[in-house]
Amino acid sequence: MAEPTEASPKHRLSVSPEATQRELRLCAFAVLDHYLSMHQVIAAHLGLEPVALLILITTTTGNVQRALRSDGLPGALRGSEPLPPGLVVPMSRRAIARVTGIPTESVRRHVDALVRRGLLVSTPKGVHAANRLTEDWALAATLRLVASHATCTERLMALEAIVPVPTRAGAATRK
Description:
Number of strands: 4
Shape: globular
Radius of gyration: 19 Å
Strand order of the largest sheet: 1-4
């Protein structure tokens, strides 16, 4: 992926509530179609039922949310190497239940099964996702997820629900 240069135009995307309301059904279909595509891609590679998939995705994103909130993303988040332990924040089963709305006992059962399959790693402070990014399927699945996201974004831009907003010259942009 090419990094933006000083000469390249920098844009942010903004949501247009008016256009979204005007095209509500089509916007909703685009987003839901993207959601289903993401589910199909991940489930096809991992063979997970929807509840287990939700728990895995919640845990995977929750483990690194603190690092993602920082202004400058740590370089260790890039690539596919295992993350340093300081960047991974294990999630408790109770936290997973709270975030997903799934009963704690169901979360416990699914987490135990995901640990047995090697998709999650159990620690005294909770669970975190195992690094699977070096496996052959990870790049292909990620490319399909990014393509689905691009298609969804293009549809929403065509509906003018998402519009580009030029940033000030030299202003920092979030990636």
